Each structure stands twice: as structure tokens, then as C-alpha cells.
Amino acid sequence: MTGSRDSWDWLRDGVEALAFGNPLYNMMLGGRTLSALPVVPQDLWPGDPARGSALLDGVFEFAGQTLTLDASPNTEAFWQPEGASDAWYAGLHSFHWLRDLRALGGDEARRAARSLVFGWSYCHAVWHGDAWSPFLAGTRIANWIGLHDFYCASADESFRACVFDSLGRQTRHLKQVMPGDLQGTKLITAIKGLAFGALVLPNGKACYAEARRLLERELPHQILPDGGHVSRNPSAHLMVLRELIDIRAALRAAKVELPPALTQAIERMAPVLRFLRHGDGGLALFNGGREEEAALVDTVLTQADSRARPVRSLPDSKFERLHGGRALVIFDAGAPPPTGADRRAHAGTLSFEFGIGKERLVVNCGAHPEIGNPWHTALAGTAAHSTVMIGDLDSSEVAAEGGLGRRPAPITCERRDSGDEITATASHDGYAAAFGLIHRRCLNLDPQGTALHGEDTLEPAPGAPASGPHPFAVRFHLHPLVQARVEEGIDGPTVLMLLPAGAIWRFSAEGAAVELGESIYCGTDAPPRPCFQITASGETAPGANASGENKPVASGENKPTATSVTWAFTREQPSG
To answer: Contact at 8 Å (CB) between 247 and 262?
Structure first.
């Protein structure tokens, strides 16, 4: 693997090797095995036959990296190929891709699945460092059990005995090390694996009791009262809801009473997932989230079977949804997630995304799956979001190793719905310490969905010393399928945008210079795609302390004034 490791990682690895890599511990993990699984939870999720076909050719693509494996699955070289990123390695050892082979179907796909499962079991018969980490162990246990009927049900007894013995060892190890240093979505996944293993293995009551205890402890920390995930990441929300649905399905199959906290969490999370969708069925791009596959989102919502009513505002997650006609705005009106839930968080406060029907118009740039990769840091910065940036400073401090340092304080948002307009207004103080300025954004969508008006104001922070002028930029990243060009007019340049289905929209702004430039889109697992960005740039109003000296402004002196940029996206009527 290519990820960076610090001295703590090496020390931890040494301690784990002493504790788990000895023959005595391997003997402790042994136990009675099964000849058949008493419970096989139904695996509910779709696979991709095209990816399954590539797997038959030895082509493995995970987290944007593609490697061709020509070694035997019964060798270490196969499971630890040179040049693999941490995210790619996790994708290989998770066995999520068994669904792709199942979607492909046929005896060749089934034989390939058996060969790969056996190869992993052969090479990892005892504890094996990263491959046995709690997150990967939990993921793999659940996938091997959930996809049992595809690759294992008709296999010979020796293969089945090998699989069941490995499942038992991995589950017993998982109980010993849970929760470890896991947090967030990875902890929920590991809990699911422990629950799956406990429900199918002999004498699994103690494992299940631990899984339930951890789940009931964790859900109040991760699921906010409005049903949003604490990370404020739509992809993380999707993942956790999916894992909870799987746990519920396994408990139902085993005829085990459902924990009330589990059913309540699923009921609250489902309408939030609908809230975070665009018209194309994919998810909005906030705090490390990606579009995700619309078919998967559909399946999760169907399996959630929630009867909760749709919502327009998330008061705890701090998102607003403005819907008029065929137009939809999803507005990040909240501060970043708290420390501990911010590993993939972005400095995109007060950014928004804007779609028309099934087409996206204004987007954020997306995310990179590999924390520590320069692309991850760049995409987490404010400049990669459709919001305001002052100077070269991010609204939150983005750490190269993931997470945020300095960040805005909690934000209040006001929303007004009337017959004439839908308005949401929010502000943040992420630039107060450096520039003495508050960013306030107001979005107004007409009920017909033909115009989105906005105003971005940079106003003096209460009690802050005056300074300036400072350069600022209001960015609007456009989806890669949107064509755009600048048109000069009497009142200055505007940007004409053509959507794939033929609709034409125009951007105009007052109070800033409008330019059209290049950007990049990483909203899917595909390679980065070029796109346009509209920039409305200028300088803040000069303050009384334009020299930069850090001194307060006396009463009656030249107090700093606010700087405002008003802008609009309006639909052009067809000529003739």
C-alpha cells in the first residue's frame, strides 16, 4: 500500500503483531464450525455486470485506481500488489465486488468468486495485519455471509468448511478488538459484520450482545434528531442507512427482536436521503460525498420502507432544500461537522448545488477517496465549492491528513416560504479572525423555478478591527455536461449556459467582475472531468485600517462598510 504512515502506526502494528500474530492467539480463535449456515440474510444490493466481466480478466478498479492482477489468488502477491493505494487495498479485501460477479452471473463468475474467496482464506488463515483490521473484517464477514448463496451454497464440503472456519475466526477476532479506534461509518460497518457473524455461528450470543450494545451506544452519537448523519456527508448517510437496513434484515431472518433504536434510526434517515438527492437520482456533493449510483439510492430507499413525510429543512443537519417548478437548490447552511466526525469534511460552508429536472447546473467539485492524496486536500478546499472565498484562505482549515482545524462557529439559518418566493439566508464567521468579515448568503428561488437570485455580503464582524481591501471570489462550478460561453452586454459580461436537454440559462452579477474559467469535476468514481466555473470577483470595501494594523476603529471614524454581490441564474425564453 502507498499510504503514509507515522511512528504511531508502526508502534501500533508492532503491538498488534505481538498480541495477535502468535500461535496461541490463533488457537484461541478456533472453535466449532458448521456444515451449513442456519441463517443467510438476503443481500439486497445491485452489482455491476461490466465490472464483473472485468474481474474475470483480472482487472480490479477501486477508488479511482485500476490494477491488473495476474498472480494466483493463492499467493501474497495477489493480495498485496505493488502500487496499490490504501483505498484500493480496502476495496480488494472488502469483497464488495462479489456483487459484480453475481450480477454478471454464470458458472465462470461463480468459479472465480470461489477461487478468490478460497485464495484469501488460504493466504490469511491466521491474523494478518491490515487485512484483519476491524473495518475490513466486518465488511468481509457481512459480504461472505450475505452472498453465500451465490458462491458457496452449491460448493463442495471442503470449500464450505474452509469458508465457515475462516468466518468463525474472523468473527471471534472482531469481538476481541471492537471497537478499537473506529469511528463513524466504519464503526457501523464493523458492528454489522459482528452481528452477521454472531447470528450464523455456533455460540454466537456473546458476539451478538456486544454488537447490539455497540450499536445502541453509537446510533445516538451518529444520527442527529432530524435523521441526518453527524458527518453531514450524503455518501456517509447513504452508507450508514444501508448498513442499518442490512442489520435489520439479518435480525429478521434470524427471528431476533429488533432494537427500537435501529428501527427509529432507519425511519428518520430515509426522508433525509430523499432530501439530499438531485433530480437525476444521485446525491449532492457536500463534505466528501459523491453522486453515488442512482439505482443504489433507489434500492436503499425502497428497502428502508419508511413512511415518514418528506422534509424541506434539516434543522440539526443544517441543510435547506428549495424547490420550485423543475428547479431544485440544496444549500449547505451549517457549520462543518464536529471534531471526530470531520475526517472527510470540506471547507464548503454556504455552498449550494442547483439542478433543473434531471440535469445538474451548479455543483461542487466532488471528493477524492484517498485521504492524504493531494487531490483530496484540493477538493476539500473552499475554492472547489460554489461559495465565497476571501484571498487564498479556506473558510475552514483543511488538514492534509483529513479533518478540519479552524472552522466557523455554529450558524443560524432563516427560511421563508411564500407564494411569491422561497428564501434561505445564512451566515458564517470563518473569515472573521483573518479579515474581520462575516459572509452572509441569501438564496431566493421563484416558485416557477425559472430564476435563482442570490446575494453574497461580506460585512464587518462585530468588534473586529477594520482591514482591507481584500480580494474575494464568488465561485459557481458548472456540471461537466453544461456548455457555457461569455456574452458581452451593455451592463457587462454575462454567461450563457446550455444544458444537455436544450434549456438555456443565463448568469449575471452586479458588484463584481464576471469571468468564465476552467474547473474539474470529481463527483463520481470516473476519472476527473473538465468543466467550467463562473467567477464573480472583486475587492472588499476598504476599512479604516487599510494599512493592516490590528487596531479597533474609534466611534465616528471611517468605519468599514459591507461589500455585496448580487447575482442571478435565469432561464432564457425560446426565441420566436
So the answer is: yes
